């Protein structure tokens, strides 16, 4: 039994097909198939049910995979730790943040990184629609700041740390409310006004199901920065993180729409996220420890 075979098993379970597993591992499909057959011979029982169109894990295979994943996590952590011990502070620190979360939350910790590890290059990447989590899963970022719900654990092996509550509000430009002669106070009064609606999230958040407003006019955008600009232009009303419009609210460029019970089903937090199967370098660890 070899770690390479366990990696093939894990890749197949994650992707669902031999071809996709081979592409992920940058191996030929024949090599992956042979490796899995050899693994079954080594363990002495069937890992896969081959009666259907696609390979599926047997009950024993599922149990075996759970333990195999623990070995792969330890292998990745050991490789990451070896690199950190060999190289010292990481030459670059990749920080991803969701556009819905203000990177100001990280500024104090980043200033400490600049002071303590001046040779470490900081690479800041703003993402939309929770793609920062994708970057963590793909090892394209070391640490991320993003909205968080427990269900996101199904999309990767994450370790998270609470930063603050993620507060959403309904906002619009005062000029938009002039169509009514006042700011809407009931859900039904929003139906005749254009709604600025984020596009479907990649990680399973269905805002249509949460909000339940069948408005006829919609403008869909793929990031909160664009949504904010459209709000300021009076192009519609929208649900947006309060941190992104706090200044506009204070200057009365936007107004908050208070409709009791409208956002009761939307509950998120802002978390710092990293991969639990990789050892972070000292610069990334400094940011993590700051919270």
From TrEMBL:
MF GO annotations: DNA-binding transcription factor activity; transcription cis-regulatory region binding
UniProt keyword annotations, A-Z: DNA-binding, Transcription, Transcription regulation
Coiled coil (UniProt feature): none
Domain HTH lysR-type: 1-58
Taxonomy, superkingdom: Bacteria
Residues annotated as transmembrane: none
SUPFAM superfamilies (alphabetical): Periplasmic binding protein-like II, Winged helix' DNA-binding domain
PANTHER family for the chain: HTH-TYPE TRANSCRIPTIONAL REGULATOR, LYSR FAMILY TRANSCRIPTIONAL REGULATOR
Family statement: Belongs to the LysR transcriptional regulatory family.
Name of the protein: LysR family transcriptional regulator
Source organism of the structure: Pseudidiomarina taiwanensis
Lineage start: Bacteria, Pseudomonadati, Pseudomonadota, Gammaproteobacteria, Alteromonadales
């Amino acid at each position: 039994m070899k770690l390479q075979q366990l990696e093939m098993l894990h890749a197949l379970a994650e992707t669902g097909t031999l071809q996709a597993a081979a592409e992920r591992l940058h191996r030929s499909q024949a090599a992956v198939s042979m490796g899995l057959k050899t693994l079954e011979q080594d363990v002495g029982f069937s890992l896969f049910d081959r009666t259907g169109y696609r390979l599926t894990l047997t009950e024993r295979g599922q149990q075996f995979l759970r333990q195999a994943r623990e070995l792969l996590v330890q292998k990745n952590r050991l490789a990451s730790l070896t690199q950190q011990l060999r190289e010292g502070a990481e030459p670059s620190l990749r920080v991803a943040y969701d556009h819905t979360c203000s990177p100001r939350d990280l500024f104090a910790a980043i200033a400490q990184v600049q002071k303590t590890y001046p040779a470490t290059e900081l690479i800041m990447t703003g993402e939309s629609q929770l793609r920062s989590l994708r970057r963590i899963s793909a090892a394209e970022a070391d640490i991320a700041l993003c909205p968080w719900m427990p269900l996101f654990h199904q999309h990767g092996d994450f370790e998270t740390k609470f930063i603050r509550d993620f507060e959403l509000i309904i906002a619009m430009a005062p000029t938009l409310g002039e169509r009514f002669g006042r700011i809407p106070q009931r859900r039904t009064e929003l139906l005749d006004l254009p709604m600025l609606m984020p596009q479907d999230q990649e990680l399973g958040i269905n805002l249509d199901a949460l909000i339940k407003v069948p408005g006829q006019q919609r403008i869909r955008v793929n990031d909160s920065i664009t949504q904010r600009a459209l709000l300021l232009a009076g192009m519609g009303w929208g649900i947006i993180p309060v941190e992104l419009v706090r200044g506009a609210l204070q200057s009365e460029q936007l107004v908050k729409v208070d409709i009791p019970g409208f956002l009761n089903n939307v509950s998120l937090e802002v978390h710092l996220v990293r991969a639990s199967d990789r050892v972070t370098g000292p610069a990334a660890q400094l940011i993590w420890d700051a919270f």
